[in-house]
Amino acid sequence: MTGKSIPRVGNPPKKATKTEENLLLSELKQWEIIEHGAQGNGRRELHRIYEFKTFEAAFQFMSAAATRIISAQDHHPRWENMYKRVEVWLSTFDMEDQISDRDLKLARSLEQLWEELGKGSPPQDLIRN
Ligand code: HBI
Question: How far apart are CA 56 and CA 88, in angstroms?
């Protein structure tokens, strides 16, 4: 590694406004905002749990998200896969773990991918031995 920081793709992140956050929550009903820290000045994250019919469907979603969305947007989720479930938390670490426009965009993109892949259905091309 040369030690140089990788230049960010696109414009620097902008802190999401309350209006922008509320619009997203009204559009994407499965998402919520988690606030850490007592006085509300701690980390804030968008949060969503995806439930799939099979592990393969869950893994296909993560793989497709990684190659089609996350790398292209240069914005990375904190996510956990447990069997048929993928739990996602989005915040911007370049902005002390606040919610930015990048998080809003990624949430919308993940939701679109969820729809495209059949809302949890198993992958079509899976051949069970
Ligand atoms: N992903 N969630 C998140 N937050 C960031 O601040 C962030 C990222 N992916 C890439 C990125 N920042 C780049 O700015 C740095 O890797 C250089």
Answer: 17
